[in-house]
């Protein structure tokens, strides 16, 4: 087996630990990487045939969260803070259902 080090950018444990609890940090890093590959400017305007307009590290869907601005969400710190807020106030990892299932954050 060959160990390959992957550059995960802003999805790195050391970056995210300032906002996520120790309990949720491992899942947060995996879901962040699954959603954006660490690219804070990633935009997804349709996935799995679902109408959405998702932005940034945690792919915050502006159709579900229209009060946020696309450019503002491309700033890593802003995106992470919104993701934590959504996580805490709106049902945990189910908001990132596909990546949460893929990474084991949801059974």
Note down, in words, how this protein is organized.
The protein starts with 12 loop residues before the first helix and ends with a helix. It is globular and about 30 Å long. The mean pLDDT is 90. The protein has helices at 13-16, 22-36, 70-73, 76-89, 97-103, and strands spanning 43-47, 50-55, 60-61. Strand 2 (50-55) and strand 3 (60-61) form a beta hairpin. 41% of the residues lie in helices and 12% in strands. It is of the alpha+beta class and 107 residues long. Helix 2 packs across helix 5. A 3-stranded antiparallel beta sheet has the order 1-2-3.
Structural class: alpha+beta
Number of DSSP helical runs:
5
How many strand segments? Answer: 3
Strand residue percentage: 5-15%
Provide the succession of SSEs. HHEEEHHH
Helix fraction, binned, reads 40-55%
State the low-pLDDT regions, or none: none
């Amino acid at each position: 087996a060959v160990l390959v080090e992957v550059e995960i950018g802003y999805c790195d444990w050391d970056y995210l630990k300032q906002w996520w609890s120790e309990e949720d940090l491992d899942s947060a890093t995996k879901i962040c990487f699954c959603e954006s590959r660490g690219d804070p400017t990633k935009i997804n305007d349709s996935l799995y045939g679902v109408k959405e307009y998702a932005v940034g590290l945690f792919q915050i869907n502006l159709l579900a969260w229209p009060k946020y601005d696309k450019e503002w969400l491309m700033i890593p710190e802003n995106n992470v803070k919104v993701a934590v807020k959504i996580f805490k106030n709106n049902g945990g990892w189910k908001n990132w259902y596909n990546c949460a299932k893929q990474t084991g954050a949801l059974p």
